[in-house]
Every structure is written in C-alpha cells, then in structure tokens.
User: Fold this.
Amino acid sequence: MNDKKYLNIIAHYEDCLEKHGDNHMGVDWPKKEDVNTRYRVMLDLIRSDKTTGEITLLDFGCGASHLYEYILQYQIPNITYSGLDLSEKFISLSKGKFPDNQFYCLDIIEDPNGIPNFDYILMNGVFTEKRELSFDEMFEYLKTMLTITFQKANKGIAFNVMSKAVDWERNDLFHLSLDTLADFLTKNLSRHFVIRNDYGLYEYTVYLYK
Assistant:
C-alpha cells in the first residue's frame, strides 16, 4: 500500500460531507432507512457476557459519529465509544458534537501503535466503496487493514463489503465473494467468523472473533 491510493476513498467521503452536510448522504449512504439497519447489524458483533461489564468500542472510519448517535438514541448500555477516522474534517466534526468522547485522526497503516486495544472494532462502510482502485488494490487494502485492526481488538471486529449475489455490480463498489474472503480469513486471521447475509441489503457483514 505504498502508493496510498486509498486516500482517494477518504477524499470522496469528504466531498460528500461538503456537498450534503452532516447526514446519511454526507457519508454516502443513499437510503436513510438502511442506515439504522447497518448500525444494528454491526453492534450485533458484541456478544453478551455479564461478567465483562463496560466494553470498549472503536468506531473505525467513524465519519460524523452517526453510530454513536444510534447508541444514544436506543440507549444501548455499557459501551465506551471511541472514534477513528483518517479525515481531519470528519474528526473535527465529531469532536465538536461529542467533545467528551475519545477520537483519533491517524492512518493506522502508517501508525498501528497510535491507538490502544479495544474489546471490539466496527468498520462500517470502510470497504464498501473502492472508487478508482482496482479489485486487487482494494483487496490488498482490506487484507492489510483487517490484519492490523484484528490485532488491536481483544474480542473481535465487524466489517461489511458488497455482495456478489446481485443482479449487477457497480465499478466503484467493492464486491467480494464469500469464498475469496473466507480463504483469507481462515488462513491468516481466524477460523471463528460469522457471515451475516440476512438483513436485506446488497452487502454482507462479517464478525471475526478471536
């Protein structure tokens, strides 16, 4: 990832924020009714364990911290929320809205030790768009990012990608086959994973556990 083409993805989201403001379109989710579905599915990563009490959660690629707004709206207890984004614009926005939360603005590929470990890490929308990247470039980016974030998670991570079980594929989106992903996960990270393909969107979510 020496050429850092993934920065084009960050620039795209900043353009969406400038164009649409602090809403679902500002983070390039086209349908508002689908957004809460994604948050619910992402948070289902967290396994109930009454002995753990408060859990630490990193919203990786937090954008405008809409996931935290969902947590507040539905009064989901026992979560200590932190956010990370490579975009200074999004981090500035999130800090302005939630000054008591911890936010990180860094490139974890360049500085993996810039954050502590968390119980769970959620990566909602980090890998759904590839923009100008080729499939191979995006897949290398995903593999690099998952390897780093899985090391920073004490219990597990969740992420979503676009499904290949669709009528047609968009060139700017990242459609990844289940077999290709499962082969990488089992050989390199963990055999303990769940694939969620049951929530009605043209994507799937993966829970990867230690």
Observations:
- The chain has a mean pLDDT of 94.
- DSSP finds six helices and seven strands in the chain.
- The chain has one domain: 7-44+53-209.
- Strands lie at 55-60, 79-84, 102-104, 118-123, 153-162, 193-196, 203-209.
